[in-house]
Amino acid sequence: MKRHLVISSLMALFVFPALCMAESGQKSDAPVETLDEVVVSATKTEEKRKDVPNAVIVIDEMQIEESPAKTLGELLANEPGIDWRTYGDYGGARGTIHIRGMEGNATQVRVNGVTVNSPSLGPADVSKIPLNSIERVEVVKGSGSVLYGSGAMAGTINIITKRPKREKTDLKVSAGYGTQSTYQVSAEQGMFAAGDVGYYLTANRYNTHGFRSNSDMSHNDASLKLVLDKGDLLNVSLYGDYIYRDFGRPDVQPPPGTQSYYLNGTELTNSESASLVDRGRDNDAHAVLNLNSRPADWVDLKLRGDYTYMDSYNYGRYVYWGMAGGARTWVTNKVLGLEGDLDLRPFSGANLLIGSEYKHYDWENKNTNLDAFGANEPDSTTHTDASLHTTGVYMEGQYRPCQYVKGLAGIRHEDHSVFGTEDLPRFGLIVNPLQNTALKINYGKHFLAPTPNDLYWPSDPYTSGNPNLKPEKGWHLDAGVEQALFDKKMFLSLTYFNWDLKDKILWGPDSNWVWKPQNLDKAKAQGCEIGTKIGPFYDLTLALDYTYTDAEEENPYVTRRATYTPRDQFRGDLTYWAPFGLTATATVRYVGDRYYYGSDESITEPCNTLDAYITMDLRLEQRLFDHWLLSLQANNLFNKSYDTYFGSFTDQISGQTSTAAFPGAGRSIFFQVAYEF
User: Fold this and answer.
1) What is the dihedral of CA 347, 349, 350, 351, to 10 degrees?
2) Residue 12 belongs to some domain of the structure
3) Is residue 8 domain-resident?
4) Fewest CB within 10 A of the end CB: N or C in the chain?
């Protein structure tokens, strides 16, 4: 009763805003998706959307602020072609983006040009990236290996963080509290401090107990962007961030009726979580220096240097048929990157991009075994380290001979210190029969290099890396149409995609039953993406997106529907701006069923299926006295239950092993107060 009274009181602040009337909330400047939007990530040059052969998604700062999403993954979830996945919704769950049915390591995620994918694991954990630091997100779907190298097979996500604005001082502080004892405090401030020198600073602290045992998390991050803006002649930015996370790893949810299990006086398992003691900790830092210069109308010069430090710590214990043990593992990645691009426009309608990129990786793995009490075993520490490097040289040309057609062709030569060289071509064609119509075709070769974990994982009687791996590679085709209607108040997109992949890297047992990565499988997919954005009309905007993905995996035994890949996904967004300063956004997401085959590679029918589910999120934001913002956010509003992955669970009391699932979180509510200067 008390909880309902509090929620009703908070709702009253939004329903009866006449207490403190603000300026009109009508959004004449509401974001409108058009073919004239400028996109940078697709060609590494500023191009209008109608001049880009890829299917793209652009999300601006206003859309981010109005969305009920808590993380970048939720923001992008179920956009056309995008599947966001986590191992349950506990605080430290790794969130990865899967585009068009490919694995998470096939999407390259960049922040201001620096890749934030884990060098040792492959995918990027997008749950780490704070939303309040982001000014713009560009998602470029289709093969991007020509410009971005390894890991850009399904697409590239480029995140541009906020920068200071001239003649304006930005300042925003906020604090909030919600269910599961969740709280967050945030601050951001930006300005031009002296002439052409400016900065933008963000900081966040986030804590939650989580929705089940051992699902807590403590997250802290800070970022700083320094700029020197001399206009076209010279534009310099130096960006750095630091992220620290400490979290529990609860594993799967045991079957109903599971009793708590104790070992040497420590509770290891209960009815909510298969692990009560496993922990994780991340320390990430990035720095990137970007220099841009346009000394003449026909030439652009871009230089970038970046450094990444990622340190991951995991503490895990196990009990298996009466045997107890565990391990502490530290994995450290250090990456140095250098890139230079020269964009030439020799005559009207023509562009030639020439560039080169170098990356150096240092990888280190340290492991210490644990005894039955969870203490370090003497003389059990192992240490493995390795270094590798890649060099990419690329060239891409564009030519528009008239207003109706444009062509694009490019090639990249990649030289990897372990697997050797690879040549990667790409071709694109854009036809504009009408001013607000674009027909697009994009076709390119893609590849994914093995990670240091794949190559160098320390050998023991049970696991081993494989330095003889080949890269995954294949081709990616997408063709579509984009159309703006009704004075650009409606935007329609329809895209067909088709890709294939061979030499897929999977961990599995070799002839000696040692688990190691091998080039085992093939994969392919085809499907379509349909997107519609309408508005603003009468202070309303509506977005509807649908994706159909027919993905298959092929191993030496069978060809079958791809594991965990939903065939159908839908998303609907409705935003309303009231004249008294209220903004309301509702998001509905549907994810179809997903197949799971376990470890049996010889079957075509799944041994388990994750059921389809629907969730609804809601965000209400009321502006008061120009500077104050009150927001109420409800995620999974109708408290729908759903699962995200399967795993195994062994009941140490009964000795039975069964398949169990990683559950998604139920309803959560969060209230926040913010002040903007």
Assistant:
1) 110
2) no
3) no
4) N
Tally of structural domains, the chain? 1
Partners of 643 in the β-ladder: 663
| Structural domain boundaries, residue 535 | 20-676
pLDDT tens-digit map of 618-637 = 999 999 988 999 999 999 99
Output phi, psi for 538, to 5 deg: 50, 45
Closest CA to 519 of 537, 511, 529, 507: 507
266 DSSP β-pair partners:
263
The string over 284-322, giving b where at least 16 C-beta atoms fall within 10 Å of a residue's C-beta and e elsewhere, is: bebbbbbbbbbeeeeebebebbbebebbbbbbbbebeee
Residues 6+ apart with CB under 8 A from 293: 232, 233, 234, 235, 300, 301, 302
Compute the distance between CA of residue 182 and CA of residue 448 in angstroms, rounded to an integer.
38
Centre a 10 Å sphere on the Cβ of residue 172 and count the other Cβ atoms it contains. Answer: 17
pLDDT of residue 2: 39
Q: Taking a C-beta distance cutoff of 8 angstroms, is the pair 104, 124 a contact?
A: yes
Give the pLDDT confidence of 95-115 residue by residue, as tens digits. 999 999 999 999 999 999 999
Q: Which two tokens stand for residue 72?
A: 């970048």
143 pLDDT more than 60? yes
427 domain residue, yes or no: yes
Distance between CA atoms of 664 and 218, rounded to whole angstroms? 19
For 424, the token pair is 């990667």
Of 390, 466, 398, 454, nearest to 430 by C-alpha is 398
What is the token pair recorded at 578? 């009231």
Helix (H, G, I), strand (E, B) or coil at 452: helix
8-state DSSP, 448: E
